[in-house]
Amino acid sequence: MTMSPDQILDIIASHERWLQRRTGGTRANLSGCNLADFNLAQVNLQSAKLSGAYLARAVLIGADLSYSDMFCANLDGADLNRALLVRADLRGAFMRGANLAGANLKEADLRGGALISGNPAAPATIIRSNIGQSDMDEADMAGANLSGTDLSHSSMIGAILEKTLLCGANLSGVNLEGANLQGADLSGANLSSARIIGANLAGANLTGALIHRTQFQKSDLHGAILENVDLSSADLAGANLSAGDGRGLSRSMRDILREHAVWIREQGRGGSRAQLAKTDLTSIDISDVNLSGADLREAILTGAVMRRTSLVMSDLSGAKLTGTDLRDAELAGINLAGADLTGSRMAGADLTSVELKGSDGQPTGRLWVANLSGAILVDVDLTGARLSGANLKGADLTGAKLNRTQIKGTDLDGARVTEQQLAQAIGKPAP
Amino acid sequence: MVRVADDVARYADAKVGPAGGGFVIYYLTDDSGEPLKTTNAGDQGISLEDLQKTRGYDRLRSYCEELSLSVRIDEHYYADEPRPTKIYRVVVDGWS
């Protein structure tokens, strides 16, 4: 639908009255309207309906489009310099060649979606938000959802993308020089030939990202998750790749922990169990976190700080836990079979059994013992730890400190442990 | 109805490499696969409100509520010529 400039002005004036809660004001509904080439600089269209609007080449410099519905809108070549797009719904929008320099897209939603016809046999058409080749220098997109978006060859120099979701986004050839991507989720993103020089990627999640001829010179990748990432063709000159202190958790990791907390609180009816098998969590700090029942099989937790962490009945079989701090951790019923805990501190840890309860919440009389069979416990400090009833069959306790460790009924069949060590412990192991 | 759950499960996973992570749109097509534009609901006196009051849409809305999803009918101008034409799309979204 094409509108005359006068009609547009009337709608905007009425919308401004609506925003000010004045009489006679109505929310602007410009859905599907043809506004190509219109000059709408500085207009206030906050919360307006612009779904499917055709705004190609429109001048929207400094316009306030925050909270607006721009679902599937076409903004190709539009000038959105310094525009406000806070929490705008831009799902499926086209913004090819748009100027977003200095624009604020904080918490905007730019995800792609699926179009499905009435014919069940016809394949779905996938539409992706496309803002490729745009100018987004200095744009603020902190916390925005840009998952699956095509941002290829865009200029995003100095852009603020802190904690932004960019899962599966196409960032090939993009220029992110000096950008802030701290804690951003770039899992599965295409970063081939991207120029990410002097950028801040601390704590970012790059799991499974495609890195090919990507330039990371002088970038801070401190604490970034680089699981399943091939960095062989990347230029990392001067980049900081240190493991980090773990406090810079990516948004995804925080989400997993939050969902897991809900899962525990609602006894599995809500939330979701943390599925972190084979995940690289090197040096992570999850002290005081409740991860009971989590799946951490073969996870890499080297140097992790887990003081007082609750891992009751969690599965950490085959996990790499060398040099971890597990002091005073709640590890009752844990599965650490075959795990490598060399040099870890486990003083005061609880590795006893869990009494299983029936669906009625009543004790069944059955015990779920902590399983440390075949675990490597070389040089581990188990001072004051409770291992009563635990299964340590074939475990290697060479050099482990067992001062005041409770070992009543502990199964040490085939374990590598000396009489001198056991003399320091309390109680008698299983015969 | 089950198709909605299947489509969302199939196209909604916004984790790694999403196919379509934000929403699913359903629209009716003619034999050539084009949006159904030769039938003009307006000619029959049918409005957006009428579509929203149909039993089928009500059932879909209830089903989406069960899945904690939202559903809406989107009214779009499709063409001016030869006469103003609207198309209606059913949008299912609401997952994060």
Write structural notes for this entry.
- The complex is a heterodimer of chains A (about 425) and B (about 100).
- Chain A has helices at about 5-20, 250-265, 420-425; strands spanning about 115, 125, 355, 365-370.
- Chain A is largely without helices or strands.
- Chain A is elongated and about 95 Å long.
- Chain A is built from three helices and four strands; from the N terminus they run H-E-E-H-E-E-H.
- A three-stranded antiparallel beta sheet of chain B has the order 1-3-2.
- Chain B is built from three helices and three strands; from the N terminus they run αβααββ.
- The longest helix of chain B has 12 residues, at about 55-65.
- Chain B is about 30% helix and about 25% strand.
- In chain B, strand 2 (about 70-80) and strand 3 form a beta hairpin.
- The chains are: A little secondary structure (about 425), B alpha+beta (about 100).
- The interface of A and B includes residues 120, 188 and 208 of A.
- Strand 1 of chain A pairs parallel with strand 1 (about 25) of chain B, so a sheet runs across the interface.
Shape of chain A: elongated
> How far apart lie the N and C ends of chain B?
21 Å
Order of helices and strands of chain A: HEEHEEH
Tally of contiguous helical segments of chain B: 3
Question: What would you call the quaternary organization?
Answer: heterodimer
Reading side by side through the largest sheet of chain A, how are the strands ordered?
Answer: 1-2
**Beta fraction of the residues of chain B?**
25-35%
